[in-house]
Known about the structure:
By secondary structure, chain A is α+β, with helices and mostly antiparallel strands. Chain A has helices at 3-11, 13-24, 36-53, 122-139, 160-167, 169-172, 215-218, 225-234, 257-264, 270-278, 291-297, 337-351, 376-389, 403-412, 437-456, and strands at 56-61, 68-73, 81-87, 107-109, 112-114, 145-151, 176-179, 191-196, 198-207, 213-214, 300-309, 318-319, 322-331, 357-366, 369-370, 394-398, 416-418, 434-436. Chain A has 2 domains: 3-196 and 369-456, Zn peptidases (Aminopeptidase, 3-Layer(aba) Sandwich), CATH 3.40.630; 198-258 and 296-366, Alpha-Beta Plaits (2-Layer Sandwich), CATH 3.30.70.360.
Amino acid sequence: MSQATNTFVEQNQNRFLEELKDFLRIPSISTLPEHKPDVQKAAQFVADSLKRAGIENVELIPTAGNPLVYGEWLHAPGKPTVLCYGHYDVQPPDPLELWKTPPFEPSVRDGNIYARGSADDKGQMYMHIKAVEALKAVNGTLPINLKFLVEGEEEVGGSSIAKYVAENPAKLKADAALVSDTALYAEGLPTLCIGLRGLVYMEVEATGPARDLHSGLYGGAAPNAVFGLIELLSKCKDANGVIQVPGMYDDVAPPAAAEKESWQRLPFSEADFLKNEVGSLALTGEPGYSVLERVWARPTLEVHGIAGGFTGAGAKTVIPAKAVAKVSIRLVPNQDPDKIVPAFRNFLADNAPAGIRIELRVLSAGPAIMVDPDNSIIQTAARAFSEMLGKPTVFTRSGGSIPVVGDFANHLGIPSVLMGFGLPDDGLHSPNEKYRLDNYYQGIMTIAHFFEELGAAKK
Amino acid sequence: MSQATNTFVEQNQNRFLEELKDFLRIPSISTLPEHKPDVQKAAQFVADSLKRAGIENVELIPTAGNPLVYGEWLHAPGKPTVLCYGHYDVQPPDPLELWKTPPFEPSVRDGNIYARGSADDKGQMYMHIKAVEALKAVNGTLPINLKFLVEGEEEVGGSSIAKYVAENPAKLKADAALVSDTALYAEGLPTLCIGLRGLVYMEVEATGPARDLHSGLYGGAAPNAVFGLIELLSKCKDANGVIQVPGMYDDVAPPAAAEKESWQRLPFSEADFLKNEVGSLALTGEPGYSVLERVWARPTLEVHGIAGGFTGAGAKTVIPAKAVAKVSIRLVPNQDPDKIVPAFRNFLADNAPAGIRIELRVLSAGPAIMVDPDNSIIQTAARAFSEMLGKPTVFTRSGGSIPVVGDFANHLGIPSVLMGFGLPDDGLHSPNEKYRLDNYYQGIMTIAHFFEELGAAKK
Lengths: 459, 459
């Protein structure tokens, strides 16, 4: 562990924070077309930051969607090459009224920085750049070869990076990818994520009558698009959350006994999880599986939003003609999106209520990913992490999805080091998203240390 | 039938149309608070029109909600008194993009006037005023005593008129009310409506987690407010539309055999109804009941709108914390809202999914209403109607609700003549609402004739 690098980080904390604030002020919401210029601005911010840190050949790569930012530093012959990945786009901030301070005016309170994207993923991605800057400032050089590939469509399930990775394996050739878009399992506990669920994101639209009808004059005879959609979606899961789509569980690979056992040793309190993270009356989910199994290793189906009919203040007595819902299915190892999507489509067709037309639109689809914890670079990362935080590194999974990890595995043949410094209560995708400042600074030091260790090990 | 009155109406058609257009240009949407000034403007328009027609003691009566407009003409001693009711407020026009011409820019096409409120109820209510004007212009006096009470909260289920009727029975004393807020059963077929369904209008709100959660990190363990609401509402009806709330059908009074038989003689084609009015893949509803029975004489439950979670363009992977739906139950004779609401509330509590908090808010509640077709004023109305249109008057019901008819019955002890001139395809509450101009002019003549006949009959 290089004390000089750590000292540099400590001495530059204020500047590193102010720079991150500038980054967080850009509302680069990839889901909303009106924020297209902000998305572009965030890409340029990343490119400029890479150049200032000493990364070379920095370019904005135009795509059908939002630009990719590429850069490289390749002056460590015989040393490993790490491909640093992150995303500069963020989720929409709504519901706005629940934010204590505005989502794009970063605010520091109680040792946290509050802003949309602070943890997911601007704050984490920026650590990679600052680690490079620190190493270069202290040593005048870098211990390994580095490539950067930063995207702006992660939150929108965009396919530009997948296409680029598939078409440019030589340019992106590396020994491993580094992805900081996950969380420590608990504060101070070094954590490497070795499993991610896949995701199929869809829209389901129901059409009933040709136009909205008066519910007095037609109620009892005309089909209702909102009720039809409700009826159909309610059939997708039973009361326990077990998905009713035939074949859904056929290919599910359960975790190995040793992995399940390691999860039992993690500091997890169901009562704390319910009270401090979820905050509902009760937890839900498949009987016979622990919370961690349900979230990490079981497929789930969620309705993320629904809209249809009259939803203003007061009363309007319509039978709505149309209704639409956003629906996703999370996939676990061995489930194939190309089998799951048709199964869901058939289920909708077979169960559509009388008089209701159903249309299914697939917005994105990607399988689950597992990383081999015995890979030597993963082992080096685990060791660097342990040394930095003073505790053995734990291996966990995440119920979330980072599709690019699959692209790196499939097209570049490399594992991803999922070394994230978020915390479970960061509020990703929620109001008042935050990132712990200690983790930001410690993350920069840990990543620098990981690079040093990789450079010291024989390739 | 007074030829002179009819001639006056014919000679003044253009002016009557232009005046109606002025009325329709006022976007008096009672459901939307931002249209409060327009609602006030519409009330003033009615008051001014009454004064110009020769109605006396016209006043705007302030209420907790929107003003009532009152006026009277009481110079026919020994003759009956009719209380003319209507409403000057309208439904919201959304979805706006489906209107061929803007909802508040009246447009005449193919013998119809297109505008929000053209049939429901501005165009119909205005007929009462023009009938008075015609009779006064031709005869210098009126054949009966008249009172007007016009409200601005009908579309919002407001309670101001109910309160006013309950508190002012002496002022409003009359022999019958006249309400033109219904439709001819078919073009050219004189129709008196003698039954209206009641309505309970509610909001059902579901709360899951304390905040929106990331569906990757929590999906499988955290309850989803949107899915919880979907699950709960889907249990309210079976696939045939039979309401599953215990006790829902206990008090339902079926129509008498003679009434059911008379419905079978009405010109009704289920194929036309499906194709030209509803426009869906199929009709729905309780097996064993005809379409007219289902719509007129059976309770129904509808979800008018639902909102929750992310519904913008693209993808957001949240587990929503909140979701809300607008739900109504239509009631038929003998059903008591004071029994139905608690039954529904209990049903929601008993069936709330695990982890989901449910809140029920009742926005309005009123029972079904029946009018006795043998009442002498109803008989006079039927005769005047038959003479004007040249066919026997049919007695029908409506599946809609006009709560004030119940207030007139309960507090004033009078029947309501439900003499409406709309047509089944007028598109009430829908885009491109229209009112047939022939019906507008014929309605004015028929109402004038009804008043003349009432004046000629001995009281």
